[in-house]
Amino acid sequence: MLMRRALGLSRRAFSTSLIRLAPDAKLVKIYQDGDFESAQYPVELVGGTHTSFAKLLYTFADSIEGKKYELYVNEFEKLEGIKKKLGPFWGEADILKDEAFSSLNPGFRFVLAWMASEGKIDALTYVKASYLELVDEITGQVRANITVGPKSKDKVETIKSEASQVLSKSGGAQKKIVFTVTEDASVDGYYFEVGTIYVDKTASATKSSEGTGKKEVAYDWTALPQLPGLKKSSTPDFLLKILGGKVDELQEADAVERKFYA
User: Fold this and answer.
1) Could you tell me if 49 and 123 are in contact, meaning their C-beta atoms sit under 8 angstroms apart?
2) pLDDT of residue 21
3) Do 107 and 31 contact (CB within 8 A), yes or no?
4) With contact defined as beta carbons under 8 Å apart, do 224 and 189 qualify?
5) Average pLDDT in the 31-54 region?
6) Which of 61, 119, 129, 241 could form a disulfide with 6 if both were Cys (CB 3.0 to 4.6 A apart)?
7) What average pLDDT does this structure show over 30-43?
8) Which candidate, 39, 37, 40, 16, places its Cα nearest to that of 28?
9) Whole-angstrom Cα distance, residue 7 to residue 14?
10) What is the pLDDT of residues 69-105, one digit of tens each?
């Protein structure tokens, strides 16, 4: 209960509407019990309230959808199509009643409605990232995000092979790779991120590395120089939870700024 108060999650009014509108009583029961917030997960998520939404999605996928974790990954993609149809103010719709959202999986739609009721719909990107983190850990897979420009879009299969080789050299050869390919007209060349490794083969990166004798720019985020030893934090857990709430406030301020001043 302490966590809910610290994070500012209010459920009573939303629960009433869910009991009336949710198509599956199992969803409401898991949500109302609240055990999903304190349960053990494949990896410990760091952040604010968006992690609660990701945990509920994961719990639904695990207990209701028969561990079909990729189901909700696909729902995020389906939602992108809905957002394009409804326009920039899609988040102001009544997600539980609006027919535009009727094609979404009940559990996914449920969590989306909870986010909207909490005014956290702008945290969708963070929720997706946290959910993918849980899914990738439990399934033992790695995601490779590839972005190609017009000149490289016919080389996608070759780039996928390159990403696989990069992962293999880093010791992740046994892991399944889930590829996502995005075309960007502003990119001259291509770049990709696989696991913790980022490879940049755009024209600008190639030009900047000409003097070094390297053909590409690559970074391994897990191999950065280690900082000198730091003392273990003595901050009490309840203060860390309150700080998590501050993270949410910053996210909200950022969302307001993008909406009205961008």
Assistant:
1) yes
2) 58
3) no
4) no
5) 88
6) 241
7) 88
8) 16
9) 16
10) 999 999 999 999 999 999 999 999 999 889 999 999 9
Residue 168 has a pLDDT of: 86
Q: How far apart are CA 184 and CA 151, in angstroms?
A: 10
Phi–psi pair at 147, nearest 5 degrees: -120, 125
Contact 191, 205 (CB under 8 A): yes
Percent of the chain exceeding pLDDT 70 equals 71
Give 189's strand partners: 202
Q: Which H or E run contains 218? A: strand 217-220
Question: Which pLDDT value is given to residue 37?
Answer: 87
Name residue, tokens 């001043």: 261
C-alpha closest to that of 44 among 218, 240, 176: 240
Question: What are residue 192's phi and psi, to 5 degrees?
Answer: -150, 160
Q: What is the Cα–Cα distance from 153 to 130, expressed in whole angstroms?
A: 29
Interhelix angle 70-86/106-117, nearest 10 degrees: 60
**How many helical (H) and strand (E) elements, i.e. helices and strands, does the chain have?**
10, 5
